[in-house]
Amino acid sequence: MYSYTEFDDAFLAERNAQFRAQVERRIDGSLTEDEFKPLRLMNGLYLQLHAYMLRVAIPYGTLNSTQMHKLADIAEKWDKGYGHFTTRQNIQYNWPQLRDVPDMLDALAEVNMHAIQTSGNTIRNVTADHFAGAAADEVADPRPVAELIRQWSTDHPEFQFLPRKFKVAVSGAPHDRAVIKAHDIGLQIVERDGVLGFQVIVGGGLGRTPMIGKVLYDFVASEDLLPTLEAIVSVYNLLGRRDNKYKARIKITVHENGIDDIRARVDARYALIRPQFTGVDQQMLSRIEADFAKPTFKTAPLDAYTTAYDNDPVFRSWADTNLADHHAPGYAIVSISLKAHGATPGDATAHQMHVMADIAAQYGHDELRISHEQNVILPHVHRNDLPTLHAALKSAGLATANIGLISDIIACPGMDYCALATARSIPIAQEIATRFDELKLEHEVGPLKIKISGCINACGHHHVGHIGILGLDRAGVENYQITLGGDGTQDAAIGERAGPGFSADEIIPAIERLVRGYLDLRSEPTETFLQTYRRLGLAPFKAALYPEARANAA
């Protein structure tokens, strides 16, 4: 992973000292809250429903064990003993005291971490495939270029006050695990005639007006990537709307002007600025790539793994759901579920973070990843170590065998924490997971992605859930709308609204009817919920959701 230079250390120390002085001025009353707000947002500090919240960047979701231990230490010392991993591969602390935040930032700096640009109308944390550097289907590791983009965008003088926040995601595999088509800019590493380059997608995004991004360029060479990105963001900075924050994202800019007009503007801007890029960025990329050299993989027998898989049904169930193929023989990618039935999706206690850090150091080549699906990944684990690893996870409550299943739910913090939320998300996720655990149906149901947002901002990605749930306020009462058929992969699609919403008391039975309806509708046990929906369309699923409407029609 990337190693900080003296420049990085000095830059971060200066930023933290600056913010410490700003916090002191806020505490002594020299700054009002209105004056302090833009300063704290530049350093990832929000004022939530009940308290401040610090959002810490985990660039492209990559951590080592030392960093994970530090995140645990911060949770223990300055928060309530846990952290919340987000859909942007960040971690949030929900209960810090304002006076402690500078100390938290200094503690993060000790392990090359920060909270810069995790908020504000700027380029946010660059995300990537959480299987990066390990996936069997990978064309190239996307993290070096994600790090290059992070360095280019951090404190970029032109892009600190964009019309709205701006999000970039990078994928290095044909199977999109980074939801690149729902980002302001999505980058797909592709190969053409033996040369690696990038397909560039612009104008994706969820929220109030969800849109799937459009291909701006089929192939951009590596040496042309940064000037292309700078041209895109420059055009958006000039053209994006500032008169209406709901229409300020680049997705609206692309929609209102058309992809051809945007491409022409980007081409013109690119022609002006390309000579300024003299190859220094490629020199930096070469140095960054050296930091991401693959670990030395061991060769070992698989006897322990095979014995456990053949004789331990609990281990076998976990292996079947939580392991993915690795490019190295004998290795697997391990997904650690932070979705124990009834738990808060994405939350991990300090103890659990320490356990995951220790396991990564001992069995995982000292690497961890955070997924946008709010789970933790050990990207490089030899299969013969898996039985021992599984036992360690089990002792910490981290061995839930549900990755990709109905209880592996993405959920935003909702009205339990967020000042913008209009409904609760966490209790709904907990009740769905608990209900299907009681029914013992989730393994029979198979792959099914439920995503829940507590307001129209869609931080829970509900638009691209196979089943999406949006919580709204209807005359002071929580109301939950359901969308169906969304997809966040390379076949990205925005879900269709099924019909009228449900109250908090009605939503769990509605989801149960929907899932039982799917089990009756699928052509065979291997046909997934999404495949069935795409084959049959909305009508039969709507009939399962609203049986009273069907009865009245009869």
UniProtKB/TrEMBL annotation:
<dbReference type="GO" id="GO:0051539">
    <property type="term" value="F:4 iron, 4 sulfur cluster binding"/>
</dbReference>
<dbReference type="InterPro" id="IPR045854">
    <property type="entry name" value="NO2/SO3_Rdtase_4Fe4S_sf"/>
</dbReference>
<feature type="domain" description="Nitrite/Sulfite reductase ferredoxin-like">
    <location>
        <begin position="345"/>
        <end position="395"/>
    </location>
</feature>
<keyword id="KW-0479">Metal-binding</keyword>
<protein>
    <submittedName>
        <fullName>Sulfite reductase (NADPH) hemoprotein beta-component</fullName>
    </submittedName>
</protein>
<dbReference type="InterPro" id="IPR006067">
    <property type="entry name" value="NO2/SO3_Rdtase_4Fe4S_dom"/>
</dbReference>
<dbReference type="GO" id="GO:0046872">
    <property type="term" value="F:metal ion binding"/>
</dbReference>
<feature type="domain" description="Nitrite/Sulfite reductase ferredoxin-like">
    <location>
        <begin position="52"/>
        <end position="111"/>
    </location>
</feature>
<dbReference type="InterPro" id="IPR005117">
    <property type="entry name" value="NiRdtase/SiRdtase_haem-b_fer"/>
</dbReference>
<dbReference type="Pfam" id="PF03460">
    <property type="entry name" value="NIR_SIR_ferr"/>
</dbReference>
<dbReference type="GO" id="GO:0016491">
    <property type="term" value="F:oxidoreductase activity"/>
</dbReference>
<dbReference type="InterPro" id="IPR051329">
    <property type="entry name" value="NIR_SIR_4Fe-4S"/>
</dbReference>
<keyword id="KW-0560">Oxidoreductase</keyword>
<keyword id="KW-0408">Iron</keyword>
<feature type="domain" description="Nitrite/sulphite reductase 4Fe-4S">
    <location>
        <begin position="119"/>
        <end position="269"/>
    </location>
</feature>
<feature type="domain" description="Nitrite/sulphite reductase 4Fe-4S">
    <location>
        <begin position="408"/>
        <end position="545"/>
    </location>
</feature>
<dbReference type="InterPro" id="IPR036136">
    <property type="entry name" value="Nit/Sulf_reduc_fer-like_dom_sf"/>
</dbReference>
<dbReference type="Pfam" id="PF01077">
    <property type="entry name" value="NIR_SIR"/>
</dbReference>
<keyword id="KW-0411">Iron-sulfur</keyword>
<dbReference type="GO" id="GO:0020037">
    <property type="term" value="F:heme binding"/>
</dbReference>
<keyword id="KW-0349">Heme</keyword>
<keyword id="KW-0004">4Fe-4S</keyword>
